[in-house]
Specification:
By secondary structure, the chain is of the alpha/beta class. It is 26% helix and 27% strand. It has helices at 40-46, 94-97, 154-157, 163-174, 190-202, 217-223, 235-241, 258-266, 290-296, 310-322, 341-349, and strands at 2-7, 15-20, 28-38, 56-57, 61-69, 81-84, 116-118, 124-127, 137-141, 145-147, 182-186, 206-211, 227-230, 248-253, 268-276, 299-302, 332-336, 355-359.
Length: 360
């Protein structure tokens, strides 16, 4: 029997429960988790902002050790360290045929499967976002595991599964920040901290971090921010004042709120680029008038999973880690157990801290 954090229903509190996890079938892998990051997307799933079949075991950012593999699995074997990939590409849909694997139409089909049962009542459980990382062990499709790159500690590697791929990808793949450009990152959580480090790696000349919490300034500067702005009604004006009244070349929005997306757009120069990473609800309506779209000539784009291909990008990230350019541990402000996840959700809602990491 395995302990897991179960979401019994949308909007209900998580429950630590024992689950019955089957052995891996053909094309499946069983993984003992070393660590799992608590991402804002997990909170969005629990409160209904994003849909998830329930009851479910959430958690999609994790790493661990392969316990056993099912028939046909050859790229990993028992004892291997692996990163969980919550959005495996099918390789055959239209998006995959274009090389846009982060938009794979079939990436989340596994989330609707029954993968385990609750011991207390035998109820079916679904794997939140395919991988159910909020558990001591999990069973996933073979496409949901990638070998941990050499030189990356297994516990730290959990962060590669979402925060780092998303934050790094937003800067390098979506916004395509160039050396010497200026960047503003809105939201200093796990993804935002990764984006700040990515902007530094890209050679940005000025990196402005924006957050509602003054307490996060030292965290942001440690990740590469050259300037810090406490979010307010004058955020865009404050950022423009830091850039000769021109605005930044690139804004990366990691919050998912209409007011923050609008502020990010307003903070960029004419011809600037805004990449929206944050996941907001349908009630978050952002408005622009036709004249300003023409006048400013800015670009506003969405960004899914950092527009990343994990198989391609993990080796690149590993090189940055080994070279000392990317510090995974700097993203983490809290190390917790499974029963600490609800408090981590509360901290996210309150805008406190960076990434909380469940360590098994």
């Amino acid at each position: 029997m395995i302990r897991a954090a179960v979401l019994p229903a949308v909007g209900a509190p998580l429950e630590i429960a024992e689950i019955d996890l089957p052995e891996p079938g053909p094309g499946q892998v069983r993984v003992r988790l070393a660590a799992a990051g608590v991402c804002h997307s997990d909170l969005s799933l629990s409160d209904g902002t994003m849909r998830v079949p329930v009851p479910a075991v959430l958690g999609h950012e994790g790493a661990g050790t392969v316990v056993s593999v099912g028939e046909g699995v050859t790229h990993v074997s028992a004892g291997d360290g692996v990163v969980l990939n919550w959005a495996p590409s099918c390789g055959s849909c239209h998006a995959c045929s274009l090389g846009e694997v982060w938009l794979c139409a079939n990436a989340l089909t596994g989330a609707g499967d029954v993968y385990a049962r609750r011991v207390s009542d035998g109820s079916d459980l679904h794997p939140g976002l395919n991988v159910a990382a909020f558990a001591e062990e999990t069973v996933v499709a073979a496409g949901c595991v990638l070998p941990v790159p050499d030189g990356v500690p297994l516990t730290d590697a959990a962060l590669l599964g979402c925060a780092v791929l998303t934050g790094y990808g937003a800067v390098h793949h979506s916004a395509r920040v160039q050396p010497g450009e200026s960047v503003a990152v809105f939201g200093v959580g796990g993804v935002g901290l990764a984006a700040l480090q990515a902007a530094r790696i890209a050679g940005a000349s000025k990196i402005v971090a924006v957050d509602v919490s003054p307490e996060k300034e030292s965290l942001a500067r440690g990740a590469g921010a050259t300037d810090y702005v406490v979010a307010s009604d004058t955020t865009a004006r404050d950022i423009r004042a830091l850039t000769g009244k021109q605005g930044v070349d690139v804004a990366v929005e990691c919050v998912g709120r209409a007011v923050t997306i609008r502020a990010a757009w307003d903070s960029t120069r004419r011809g600037g680029r805004t990449t929206v990473v944050g996941i907001g609800g349908k009630d978050q309506q952002v408005t622009f008038n036709a004249l300003e779209i023409f006048h400013w000539g800015r670009t506003l784009s969405g960004c899914v999973y950092g527009n990343s291909d994990p198989a391609r990008d993990l080796p690149v990230l590993a090189e940055h880690i080994r070279a000392g350019h990317l510090d995974l541990a700097a993203l983490v402000t809290d190390h917790i157990a499974l029963d600490g996840i609800p408090a981590a959700f509360d901290n996210m809602l309150a805008g406190k801290g960076g990434r909380a990491l469940v360590v098994f």
